[in-house]
Amino acid sequence: MSKRNILKIIAFVVGLYFFLEYILPEKVGGDFDSYEVGSPVCVEKDGKKLQFYVGNYYKGRGIIGRMVKVSGKWRKDAEPCLQRSLFLKFDQYGLTDPDVALSPEGLTLLYLGQNEKEPVLCYAVSSDDGQTFKKKGPVVLSTNDVFQTFENAPNGLIPDRIKAFAADYKGGVWDVYLFTMTYRVWRATGPDLKHLKLDGEPLSASALTEKSPNSFDVFTEGGSPVLVYVMDREIIEFRKSGSDWTPKSWKAPLGNGTNDTVYAGGRIDPGDGTLYLGTKKMQKARPIDSPYETALCAVSLRDKGNGEPLAPEMTVYKKVGASPRPTYLSYGTEWAGKFLTVVGSFAIFIAMINLMLFHGKKIYQSALNYNAPVGEEKLPGGGAPMRNFLKNAGYSAVFLVFLAVMIVCALKGQTDEAKGTIWKTSFDFLFNAIQAPMGSAVFSMITFYMISAAYRSFKVRSLEAGFLMAAAIVCMVGQMPIGELLASFVPEGWKLLQLPWLSGKLLSVLNAAAYRAVLIGTLIGSVAISLRIWLGLDNSVYSSVD
Q1: How many secondary structure helices (H) and strands (E) does the chain include?
Q2: Which site from 117, 205, 257, 282 is most exposed, i.e. has the minimal number of CB atoms within 10 Å?
Q3: β-pairing, 196-198 with 141-142?
Q4: Concatenated DSSP letters for 431-443?
Q5: Mean per-residue pLDDT over the chain, rounded
Q6: Is the Cα torsion angle 452, 453, 454, 456 positive or negative in sign?
Q7: Over 90: is that where the pLDDT of 63 sits?
């Protein structure tokens, strides 16, 4: 059997495996929360205790489930009440950190929608006790009276990225607290979730920003707000006294009394003082199962009057749902991932070796041709041979020298003990002072070609070119601060005259449609070429194999 046929067989077997892995699931059956559970929140509606929590069927793809308390026990609905979106970008990657409140719209569920960029605070409303929810989109916040959303800011122009939030609805007003990625706590209030006005400054109490909670909750008691931080192994309650917040720490016992269990978020039921928590600990599991053993627990934060918790232990009332059945691919997927990592590492070394061989061969051939004709200078620097050598192999020599220097500096300067050494200093200098600026310089030169192409494209010689010019002006101005300034003079109902809104629609609707059409055509061509190679119909890739 020839080498070409062997390569065709290997390509076919590998392609068949990954094709089956793509079209067949790694597991079948099981409940929607069979992978992980967490982040419970409780509410009472019409005398009925309801609880909502995050359930995962796959890693990082959280959806919301519902439980009802019947005869002192929590009973789970068979189907989730709120799922992630397949096409709307706000929560394509899952829903996390839910909170719930009763409002005039109905039972209102707030959550953080996970996507490819940053978490988006969204909400949904139910009219049937939470069995199903209708999504209402992102919560809109603002530091002024202009409540607008943008393509890259669906929650409005907020000061920072949201890490966690807590919401309460009392007296016809929403009271929302945001914990941001920079360890600051902001408060926003408003009559509805589309018009929440942020305070001018974050809360100034230093106790609130000393630690970063996994989740936190807010409720009103005695007319004053109470914040509850859920840490890994600690629960901190903050009560407002004047302009400051007084902390009170609760070290409630963990689920099994071991140090490998941590809290994974939760919220308090202000009615009876019960804190509902998600817990997790490491476990050995099948490839289709989570590496963590997760559960929902309850612990009381009310004390006996002497500061001691009323409940000495937490009560586990919910674990993951019925486990799915694995397919043979679930075990092969883990192996395939490791295999691709190893192959990728080898590919990097092979590429480096190929470069070294290519440039080394170039230098060697130039050295052989260094013999000068009779009567010419043979020593470097004095005649035609040296100029020819530098012309043919000068850059290759520079490449090999810097390749060797970077490898040595990286191996010796990227360890924990190398801080402050000549190796660390040399690596930082070569990377930050040479490679990064040169990369930026090369990339910036593309700008001139882009400007030249734009100049030729924007010449208004036809009706189509006129539309292109108009769309380009709207998109550019709409993305600049002057666009927001001009929009502030336009009435809120006249959306077509607001350049930021019009720019967002052009980019997210018309431009996205055209881009997806081109992308679909490209993918169809890629699939056709891949099938030809996979089935051995295209011999061009094996043309150099004997």
Answers
A1: 9, 23
A2: 257
A3: parallel
A4: IIIIIHHHHHHHH
A5: 81
A6: positive
A7: yes
pLDDT at 370: 60
Structure tokens at 267: 């919220």
Which token pair is 482?
A: 């002057």
Cα angle value 138/290/72 (rounded, 5°): 75
- The answer to whether residues 286 and 250 touch, using CB atoms and an 8 Å cutoff, is no
Positive or negative, the CA dihedral 522, 528, 533, 539 is negative
Q: Work out the angle at residue 352's Cα, subtended by the Cα atoms of residues 359 and 388, and round it to the nearest 5 degrees.
A: 10
- E strands, 301-343, where? 315-319, 325-326
Run of H or E including 278: strand 274-282
Higher pLDDT, 222 or 159: 159
Higher pLDDT among residues 185 and 10, named by residue: 185
Q: For the chain, what are the domain ranges?
A: 27-323, 460-546
Within 8 A by CB and 6+ apart from 152, the residues are: 117
Handedness of CA 379, 385, 389, 391 (dihedral sign): positive
CA angle (273 as vertex; 268, 278 as ends), nearest 5: 35
The region that residue 183 occupies, defined by phi over 0 for left and psi between -120 and 50 for alpha, beta otherwise, is left
Q: Under CATH, which architecture does the 27-323 domain have? A: 5 Propeller (2.115)
pLDDT at 72 over 50: yes
> b/e string for 51-78 if b means 16 or more Cβ within 10 A?
bbbbbbbeeebbbbbbbbeeeeebebee
Say how far apart CA 82 and CA 107 lie, in whole Å.
13
> Which DSSP string do the residues of 408-465 spell out, in sequence order?
HHHHHHSSGGGTTSHHHHHHHIIIIIIIHHHHHHHHHHHHHHHHHHHHHHT---SHHH
| Banded pLDDT at 67 (limits 50, 70, 90) | very high
Q: For residue range 297-312, list pLDDT tens digits in order.
A: 888 765 544 445 444 4
Distance CA 526, CA 511 (A): 22
Q: Which of 16-20, 97-101, 149-153, 244-248 has the highest mean pLDDT?
A: 97-101
Instruction: Answer whether 115's CB lies under 8 Å from 89's CB.
Output: yes
Supply the angle between the helices 3-23 and 328-368 in degrees, to the nearest 10.
140
Whether the predicted pLDDT of 259 surpasses 60:
no
